[in-house]
Every structure is written in C-alpha cells, then in structure tokens.
Design brief:
276 residues, mainly alpha, two-stranded antiparallel sheet
Length: 276
C-alpha cells in the first residue's frame, strides 16, 4: 500500500490548473444568454451581446491572442490586402500599361508566397529567431511588407520598371501569408485546448476578416472615385505597420524555445517557470 507523505490521508488536493479551469467555466457561464429589459419586454441587445461575447473570448483565450487576431485578421488579411488588391489591376493598366492578361500572369507570380505556406511553417518551427518560432517571423515580414507598400506608394512606375511593382506585390503577399499562417497556428492550438468554444473562435476570426474587407471596400471607393491609386497604398501602410508593432512587442502568446545539447528544439524551462 502507498501512503501520502503529507497528512492528507490519501486525498489529493485539487491542482491549481483545475481551479483555474473551474473559475474560467464559471466566468464563461456568466457571459451567456444576457437579455435586456425594456417596458417589460426582454430582448437581446446586440451591443450588450457583443460586450459579453468579447468578454467570453478574453476569458477563454486571453486578451493578447484576441487582440493579435484583430491586428492580423482585421488589419492585414482584411483591410490591408483589400486595399492593395483593389488597386492592383487599375494601377497596372494606368502606370505600367499592362493588359488584363499580362496582369494575370504577374499576379500568379505575386501570389507565390501563398503556395509555399507549408514550407514557411516548417522553417519557422525548426528555426526559431531569438528563441521564438512565430513572433519575429511575423515582425520581419511585416517590416518588409511595410517597406514594399511605401516603395510602391512613392515610386513612379512605367512599363520599363514594372518588375519592381510585381516584386513589391510579392513582398506584400509574403507579409500577409506569413502573418496569417503563424497566427492561425496559434489560435488553432488554443482551440484544441478549448474545443467546446472553438466555434466562437472561428466566428471571431472570420468576423474580423469580413469587417476588414468592408472597411477596405469603403476606403477603396473613396480613392478609386478620383483614380488616386497611390492613395490606396498610403491607406494600406498603417495597417501593415501596426502588425509589426503588435508582433514585435510580443502580443502573440508564445513560449521561448532553445536548442538542447542534442540539437533538438525544446521549450526554455526558465521562460516556462517565469510564465507560471
């Protein structure tokens, strides 16, 4: 027979992680099914529901991941790529004198980063930068993408230097593809630990992408009405820069890793202890 060395007579004390999960469950229950009373009538107020929805997301997934998704999915994948995409064909026709068929060929080249997303994921998992698999990849790609947008917004293109324009679009697509892939990996991991609320995360992600796309459509209408294609890139620039700031500041929740003596990539124990 085995006995506990403590005086608990074989009773196990509930672990701190179980206590946290129980507290989380109670807090989430408090955010569900809230109705508003007015003149004796109960109804669902969309603003109140949105408040409780965001409160639930922050309780379950933590505010850093929730706001990082806004930065990437709303700011980059929704608004920024929407603004750049709206200017692609008309910009090329006006300044580069490219036909729709030629632009389609170059568009395939510019979308190349999306086809190598699995390779990017493998590299980021195997080769961490400063001990992080995701943070600095997103930050570096955002910095390069921001530079590409600034270059296109300020440079005067013609048919002789059209390849510079295509190269800029390729770098912009690289930013979106890398930020999308690595953020997706992190929230997919969080969904695995909270399967009962995974649908809320999917809705949240696509809601951000949709709202970002709507904002891009409104802003594009303002610029395209006057055929001011450079303005579209100036509008897209702040969305690219903010992603660099959020990723470089460590908003994406991620444990620091290091290489063991055998050359394997493992979680840094010191960093893990600090997080606890």
């Amino acid at each position: 027979m085995f006995r506990n060395r403590g005086g608990g007579r074989g009773r196990k004390k509930p672990s701190s992680s179980k206590k946290k999960e129980e507290i989380k469950r109670i807090l989430v229950d408090l955010t569900e099914y809230k109705t508003t009373q007015c003149c004796g009538i109960s109804y669902y107020n969309p603003f109140v529901q949105f408040y409780y929805y965001m409160r639930k997301m922050i309780i379950i997934y933590g505010w850093p991941l929730v706001f990082m998704i806004v930065s990437v999915m709303f700011g980059v994948k929704g608004a920024m790529i929407g603004l750049v995409g709206s200017s692609g064909l008309p910009y090329a026709q006006k300044y580069l004198k490219l036909s729709a068929i030629e632009m389609q060929k170059y568009g395939i080249v510019a979308s190349f980063p999306w086809t190598v997303k699995p390779l990017i994921g493998m590299i980021s998992d195997g080769v961490p930068i400063f001990g992080y698999n995701k943070r600095w990849y997103i930050a570096a790609s955002s910095l390069i993408g921001s530079g590409a947008i600034y270059f296109i917004a300020t440079y005067k293109f013609d048919r002789s230097n059209g390849l510079y324009y295509i190269a800029g679009l390729t770098l912009i697509n690289a930013q979106v593809a890398i930020a999308d892939l690595l953020t997706e990996g992190k929230y997919a991991e969080a969904m695995r630990y909270n399967p009962s609320h995974s649908a809320s995360m999917v809705s949240y992600v696509w809601g951000n992408i949709t709202l970002g796309g709507i904002l891009a459509t409104v802003l594009s209408y303002i610029a395209l009405k006057d055929e001011n294609y450079h303005l579209l890139f100036w509008m897209a620039l702040p969305f690219a820069v903010q992603c660099f700031l959020t990723s470089a500041s460590g908003l994406l929740p991620e444990l620091r890793v290091k290489r063991s003596k055998k050359g394997e990539v493992v979680v840094d124990d010191d960093e893990d202890d600090d997080d606890d």
